[in-house]
From TrEMBL, chain A:
GO terms for cellular component: ESCRT II complex; late endosome membrane. It comes from the Eukaryota. This is Vacuolar protein-sorting-associated protein 36. Its main location: cytoplasm. InterPro entries: GLUE_dom, PH-like_dom_sf, Snf8/Vps36, Vps36, WH-like_DNA-bd_sf, WH_DNA-bd_sf. PROSITE patterns: GLUE. Residues 41-178 form the GLUE N-terminal domain. The lineage of its organism: Eukaryota, Metazoa, Ecdysozoa, Nematoda, Chromadorea. Component of the ESCRT-II complex (endosomal sorting complex required for transport II), which is required for multivesicular body (MVB) formation and sorting of endosomal cargo proteins into MVBs. Component of the endosomal sorting complex required for transport II (ESCRT-II). It comes from Caenorhabditis nigoni. Residues 173-187 have a biased composition (Low complexity).
Automatic annotation (TrEMBL), chain B:
GO terms for biological process: macroautophagy; protein transport to vacuole involved in ubiquitin-dependent protein catabolic process via the multivesicular body sorting pathway. One of its GO terms (molecular function) is structural molecule activity. Belongs to the VPS25 family. GO terms for cellular component: ESCRT II complex. This is Vacuolar protein-sorting-associated protein 25. Its main location: cytoplasm. It comes from Caenorhabditis nigoni. The lineage of its organism: Eukaryota, Metazoa, Ecdysozoa, Nematoda, Chromadorea.
Length: 423, 179
């Protein structure tokens, strides 16, 4: 539970930090665009990041943008990218210097082929009057047209797709990519309709992806740190051991209690027993005996293997054991002369039980219980002995096997009676 | 299935585990033994010679209303298999839907019938089968109302021992002559 809580806490923190960074970046963008306001054109606007669904339709390199009939421009050479909403032009010499021409401003367009005298194929675009408040290279212009000059060709394809994109008027349905272009997309259109839902889904998707990436970053860091923590705790406990004299008794005790509160002070790890599995499992078996003996003794003399697994790992805290290791270690219990042993019931259920709690005595105990109640279910036995229902059931089945009790399987459930058939 | 006097159910009938086929082999043997005895006793008491499985499964024999327990269909089949193995019942059809209950084995019936014939001086006298099971002379005998198939088994048994002679079987006046 606590692990989960801290996990979500970290991911929230990460998300918050990201938000702040994004806002900072957005602000710096605005400042940049004001600094560039020395050029000519007023319908073009400075680039702002579009929505995530914006899809690249076509791209052409070596494109210049000229205003009206002018032969001079500040935007001689760049890459023009066409999307469903706008054209984004990026300067070849300075990729951060980007212009945007939104389709909503386009009235008409025509294509001029490359001639002997011109520098390349052209697309001439007739534009509407600018909207007030647009942030572009310049605030007023006498021309209503803009020429896109394709020095290295590609204008045919670009023109066809541009015309198509303008005709479709997708920006009316979805939100405008460039917030400052003053397009017809109003703010309440942004979140309504199917496109709004789609956009929100895409945003959520993006956000989840980021959170997960961030979270796993944290996780791997946590793992690294955990390893270090174990190493530190080990070295400390070694130091404490070697310098017993120098540190006062009180301090040692306190230190040890800290370490103990982390779980087992010096967990048996596989790395310390390289190449000798059986020795490793025997040490683990010893550890299991230490941790579980008292518990098993007080709780019916039996403990199912999943519970053993949980308890031993709970006690260790870190350097967790795999289920396979726990099972092998339990198998090694018999080799180390432990008061516990691994027992397999005929049904396949595995338990760790006290050696003293042999089958005969538990069977007799079970019969006694059943006789006292006249009839008993596994639940009742489990409650009475403080063992799990699965174990209680196993005991009843064992007693049944030896003919002391018999079953009554009805809609009331599986009940057991003293076996009067064999009397 | 009219009951003449109240049938005395065995103690097992009031023991809920009786209605669950037991898993432990020894226990199961004892249980099936008890079931077999119960089925035979019940049939004898109610003079049942043959039973339909569907009918039997719903009858009070396999249903204890008081305990709200009934032997499952599988359980009934297990009991019947046990009975068949002990030659106490015999299925009459391949579909195993109906069976004869031999609460007396056919040779026991045969002896009883022969005994009756001797005591009433019917030796060497032709008798119809109807006379034996439904005639006025046999109203007090236990084989009164005995089913035809079982009677035939008993008489065939006697014929094998050359103590009877079957006549006209399949005809109108089926008969037998005890010798």
């Amino acid at each position: 539970m606590t692990e989960e809580a801290s996990f979500s806490f970290w991911s929230h923190c990460a998300a918050a930090v990201k938000c702040v960074i994004f806002q900072y970046l957005a602000i710096s963008f605005d400042i940049d665009s004001y600094l560039f306001q020395k050029t000519q054109m007023n319908r073009l606007t400075w680039y702002t990041p579009g929505e995530s669904t914006e899809e690249l339709l076509c791209q052409a390199g070596h494109v210049g943008i000229y205003e009206g009939d002018l032969k001079q421009t500040q935007f001689e050479q760049g890459t023009a990218s066409l999307t469903m909403q706008r054209i984004i032009w990026a300067d070849s010499s300075d990729p951060d210097r980007r212009l945007v021409l939104h389709h909503s401003l386009v009235i008409s367009m025509e294509k001029h082929h490359k001639s002997m005298f011109s520098k390349g194929g052209k697309v001439v675009v007739r534009l509407e009057k600018p909207k007030p408040g647009s942030v572009g290279p310049v605030n007023s212009s006498q021309y209503d047209t803009i020429r896109l000059v394709f020095r290295h060709g590609g204008e045919d394809d670009f023109f066809k797709k541009y015309e198509d994109a303008v005709r479709r008027k997708t920006w009316q349905r979805s939100s405008s990519g460039s917030s400052s272009s003053g397009s017809r997309a109003s703010s309440n259109l942004r979140s309504v309709g199917i496109s709004g839902i789609e956009r929100r889904l895409a945003e959520n998707h993006q956000k989840t992806h980021e959170t997960i990436t961030q979270a796993f970053d944290d996780m791997s860091k946590l793992m690294e740190t955990a390893r270090e923590m174990v190493a530190i705790s080990k070295s400390i406990s070694e130091k404490v051991r070697s310098r017993k004299g120098e540190i006062s008794e009180d301090e040692t005790v306190q230190f040890k209690s800290y370490l103990l509160s982390l779980g087992v002070s010096d967990p048996v790890t596989k790395s310390t027993f390289v190449g000798s599995d059986s020795e490793y499992f025997q040490s683990l078996a010893k550890e299991i005996t230490d941790v579980l003996y008292q518990h098993i003794k007080e709780n019916g003399g039996m403990c199912a293997l999943p519970e053993v697994y949980c308890r031993i790992n709970r006690a260790r805290g870190m350097e967790l054991l795999s289920p396979e290791d726990v099972m092998n270690a339990c198998g090694a219990l018999s080799r180390i002369n432990s008061p516990l042993e691994l027992h397999r019931f005929p049904s396949g259920v595995l338990v760790v039980q006290l050696k003293s709690a042999s089958m005969e005595s538990t069977v007799a105990q079970t019969l006694e219980f059943v006789s006292k109640l006249e009839r008993a279910s596994a639940n009742e036995l489990a409650e009475s002995l403080g063992i799990t229902v699965i174990l209680a059931r196993e005991r009843l089945l064992a007693a049944e096997e030896s003919g002391l009790i018999c079953r009554d399987d009805s809609i009331e459930g599986l009940l057991f009676y003293p076996n009067r058939f064999l009397d | 299935m009219a009951t003449t006097s109240a049938f005395k159910w065995p103690w097992q009938y009031d023991f809920p585990p009786f209605f669950t086929i037991q898993k432990s082999l020894n226990t199961k043997d004892k249980q099936l033994e008890a079931w077999a005895r119960l089925v035979i006793d019940y049939a004898q008491h109610n003079k049942i010679y043959s039973l339909d499985i569907a009918e039997a499964t719903t009858s009070e024999l396999f249903n204890n209303q008081k305990l709200n327990r009934r032997l499952s269909t599988d359980g009934v089949n297990t009991v019947l298999q046990y009975l068949e193995q002990k030659k106490l019942i015999e299925f009459t059809d391949n579909g195993r839907t109906r069976f004869h209950i031999f609460w007396r084995r056919p040779d026991v019936w045969a002896n009883m019938i022969y005994q009756w014939a001797v005591e009433n001086a019917f030796l060497n006298t032709p008798l119809t089968l109807y006379e034996i099971t439904h005639g006025d002379d046999t109203t007090n005998e236990s084989f009164h109302n005995l089913e035809r198939e079982i009677l035939m088994k008993a008489l065939t048994c006697l014929e094998d021992q050359r103590r009877a002679q079957l006549m006209n079987i399949g005809g109108d006046n089926e008969g037998v002559k005890f010798v």
